[in-house]
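Structure (tokenized):
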């Protein structure tokens, strides 16, 4: 039994499922509901994000690190480029860009440049220009990553 791969895959798949699932639900359902909804919904979001942001960031970071280690192990010594390698590479790249943009959205670094999600009591800052632009872009990248990860082994 290859414990190294086993542990990396557990971290990778559990982290990836949580990151992608929670983030896509957030962008598709929660944020639009807050933007068009009652102040109460904004308050729920305002309470949710300080907990959910770091959890998403942690899961995303673990997914990317374990993904890069798995990629290096699978294809690092390959003498030729295979379709699977390209597939995992495209998905990995999309997820890594999504992760970097997520750092802009959910950390003080992004907030300093006006790209950050800064939930207040009402949570209405989810409509800030940075989040409006970055949120859907990150969702598309995460979706591309999920698609590629699902099929690349069988290409
Ligand atoms: C949204 C983010 C991601 C999700 C949801 C995700 C999900 C998954 C899943 C479910 C698998 C298992 C597929 C299978 O065994 O056929 C997998 C495998 C893999 N992923 Fe990701 N992944 C993500 C990001 C990344 C990143 C950033 C990389 C870095 C290059 C990466 C590289 C890989 C590699 C190389 C494998 C094959 C591992 C093996 O040989 O066992 N993934 N991923």
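Design, position by position:
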């Amino acid at each position: 039994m290859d414990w190294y791969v086993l542990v990396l895959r557990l971290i990778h798949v559990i982290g990836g499922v949580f990151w992608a699932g929670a983030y896509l639900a957030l962008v598709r359902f929660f944020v639009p509901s807050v933007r068009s909804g009652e102040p109460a919904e904004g308050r729920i979001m305002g309470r949710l994000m300080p907990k959910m942001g770091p959890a998403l960031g942690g899961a995303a970071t673990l997914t990317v690190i374990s993904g890069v280690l798995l990629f290096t192990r699978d294809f690092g010594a390959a003498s030729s480029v295979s379709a699977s390698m390209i597939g995992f590479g495209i998905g990995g790249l999309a997820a890594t860009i999504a992760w970097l943009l997520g750092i802009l959205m959910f950390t003080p670094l992004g907030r300093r440049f006006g790209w950050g999600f800064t939930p207040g009591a009402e949570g209405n800052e989810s409509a800030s220009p940075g989040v409006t632009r970055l949120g859907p872009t990150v969702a598309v990248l995460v979706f591309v990553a999920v698609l590629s990860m699902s099929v690349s082994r069988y290409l």
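Reviewer-requested clarification: The chain has five helices and no strands. Residues 87 and 100 are 20 Å apart (CA to CA).
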